[in-house]
């Protein structure tokens, strides 16, 4: 792997919180931004493998969209444990969450990935849980792969959500890493969209860009709960049969995607940036993948909400932490388009 490292100097969470309300107020009937202790994300409705978002927070962008368009680069596959090492994360305890393409070799076809992978041996960074204490006594490592793959069933055409069979990803991935510890985070809520910006996460990204621009890059990672209302998602089907040049233009790519509308609750794992530092890293400024907390076949790449649905306003609740470093892993050059 080729890895580039870009240290950040994020503002305090209180300063970030102060920058968000104007944008949110312009887009939603009610909203709030506070700095608060992170809830235990292992509990409902999130059911993640990580307790929180604290402890040496960092983000990584792996591969890129050019690994998909105009021709899928199927050899581009990474393991989450290997990526954690490239991100210089502790071998004793940590968590990765984020959005990417599923490990097609393990799944048997192409899919959307909502990444959630944790590890702990009870050593450095260990918590006070009974489980952590037992692991320390036994000298064991507890790896948990809670990642979900959202796919289109090749026979029925139905969307399905499966636990990922292996802690891997392909083509591209945006990750937020931390020790998974409890600690303060940004809590952002919004309800009743009144503005034209349909994406909650893009609204946050735009607010960060306006407040901090490219001079002070602010990178956030965390979880988004779409509590109520309906939103639009895409799910990649399996790769086209024509491996020579399946996506001859962007319109062909968009027609290949399958499009869906789902009611909340839906859980999203998200990474976003105020800006690409100096325009040099080639960052994807926002990426959010979702799955249903109830296990039903609902999820995929989040695009935007549909305002009021059946008389019910859309409602969001999100928890984010700010990264202290960006890792750009296996950057892919923009490939020529036919």
Question: What's a concise summary of this model?
Answer:
By secondary structure, the protein is α+β, with helices and mostly antiparallel strands. It is built from seven helices and 19 strands.
If you average the pLDDT, what whole number results? 90
Largest beta-sheet details: 10 strands, mixed
Approximate strand percentage:
35-45%
**Inertia-based shape:** globular
- The helix-strand sequence is EHHEEEHEHEHEEEEEHEEHEEEEEE
CATH architecture heading: 2-Layer Sandwich
Q: What is the helix tally?
A: 7
* CATH topology title: 60s Ribosomal Protein L30, Chain: A
Superfamily at the CATH H level?
Hypothetical protein, similar to alpha- acetolactate decarboxylase, domain 2
Helical amount among residues, as a percent range? 10-25%
Instruction: Let me know the number of strands.
Output: 19
Query: What is the first-to-last residue Cα distance?
Result: 28 Å
CATH class: Alpha Beta
Radius of gyration: 19 Å
């Amino acid at each position: 792997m080729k890895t580039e490292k870009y240290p950040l100097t994020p503002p305090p969470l209180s300063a970030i919180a102060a920058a968000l309300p104007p944008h949110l107020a312009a887009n939603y009937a009610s909203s709030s931004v506070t700095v608060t202790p992170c809830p235990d994300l292992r509990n409902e409705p999130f059911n993640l493998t990580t307790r929180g978002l604290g402890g040496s927070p960092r983000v990584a962008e792996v591969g890129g969209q050019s690994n998909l368009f105009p021709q899928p680069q199927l050899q581009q596959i990474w393991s989450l444990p290997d990526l954690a090492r490239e991100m210089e994360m502790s071998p004793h305890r940590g968590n990765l969450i984020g959005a990417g393409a599923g490990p097609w070799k393990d799944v048997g076809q192409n899919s959307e990935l909502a990444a959630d992978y944790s590890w702990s041996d009870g050593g450095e960074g260990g918590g006070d849980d009974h489980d952590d204490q037992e692991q320390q006594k036994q000298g064991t490592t507890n790896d948990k792969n809670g990642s979900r793959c959202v796919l289109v069933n090749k026979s029925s055409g139905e969307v399905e959500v499966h636990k990922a069979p292996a802690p891997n990803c392909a083509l591209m991935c945006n990750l937020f890493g931390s020790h998974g510890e409890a600690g303060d985070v940004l809590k952002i809520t919004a309800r009743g969209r009144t503005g034209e910006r349909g994406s909650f996460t893009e609204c946050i990204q735009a607010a960060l860009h306006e407040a901090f621009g490219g001079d002070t890059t602010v990178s956030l990672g965390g979880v988004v709960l779409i509590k109520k209302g309906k939103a639009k998602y895409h799910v990649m089907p399996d790769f086209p049969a024509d491996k020579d040049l399946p996506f001859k233009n962007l319109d062909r790519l968009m027609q290949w995607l399958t499009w869906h509308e789902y009611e909340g609750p839906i859980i999203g794992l998200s990474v976003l940036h105020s800006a690409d530092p100096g325009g040099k890293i080639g960052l994807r400024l926002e990426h959010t993948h979702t799955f249903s907390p109830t296990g039903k076949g609902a999820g995929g790449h989040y695009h935007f909400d549909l305002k009021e649905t059946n008389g019910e306003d859309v409602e969001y609740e999100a928890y984010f932490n700010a990264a202290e470093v960006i890792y750009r892993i296996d950057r892919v050059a923009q490939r020529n388009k036919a």
